[in-house]
Amino acid sequence: MQKIHISFTKNHNPKSWQASLALSLGCFLLALIFSQGQARQQQEALAARLAPSVLRFHILAESDTKADQQVKLEVRSLVLDFLKEHLSGNADKEKTMACLSQNQEKIENMANAYLKQQGFDYHASLQLTNCYFPTRIYGDYVFPCGYYDAARITLGKGEGHNWWCVLYPQFCFVEEACTSVPGESVSRLEQALKEDDYLALKNNRPDVEIRFFLFPQLSADMIKVSFNR
Question: What is the pLDDT of residue 41?
Fold first, then answer.
């Protein structure tokens, strides 16, 4: 949880107080934008170092209707089950990508057959690509925003909400609560990364508190504005 506190004193002169308020808010917004820009750059730099060791998984639903969102999850489970059957337990990123490439037609036909069986008239397409992912949390690990290699399945127009996970090392969860990560996956990730980068993935985000004190020499009531994120 990030907490930002702004404190300033109120001038008895209404116009002077309004000018002080506008100035303080302007300074705060500039500082916030600068801080967020720096944080994003740091996240993307970490993602660039992490990306060679990671393969993401991305499924785009046809739309946001309940039926389309539900079948998206069912197709997801079919694909994950297929990979479990066709990949050995020690398969690395390259072997996982090779399996997806070699079995692309099979995976698409499997998904399309299921969609037809369930009464949907659109089709699934599988693509190995490199695309931008937002920051995602898996158990105790935060995967930063940035560009990653990915297996992307598009259902129909692909205009609905997405489902994301990590195919390699395996951070894919089919349950809603991502509470624990397989120990073997953690070990592979730790071995592939520098110690500092691995530790940066841990979901240990301290509370950040910023205070602006304006015009402390003026006597007035103290006003506090808090933003919790």
Answer: 79
Q: How far apart are CA 17 and CA 23, in angstroms?
A: 10
The strand ranges marked E within the chain are 3-9, 55-60, 124-133, 136-138, 141-143, 146-155, 162-168, 213-214, 222-228
- Rounded to whole angstroms, the Cα distance separating 172 from 141 reads 12
In DSSP terms, which residues pair with 228 in a beta bridge?
3
* pLDDT at position 208: 42
Read off the pLDDT of residues 103-137 as tens digits, 9 standing for 90 and up. 999 999 999 999 999 999 999 999 999 999 999 88
Distance CA 81, CA 138 (A): 20
| Spatial CA neighbour of 198 closest among 40, 49, 44, 39 | 49
Closest by CA position to 125, among listed 140, 114, 113, 109:
109
CA dist., res. 149 & res. 128, Å (int): 7
Query: Tokens at residue 47, please?
Result: 């993602």
pLDDT tens across 175-214, in order?
A: 554 456 677 888 888 888 888 888 888 865 544 444 444 4
Structure tokens at 192: 């592939």
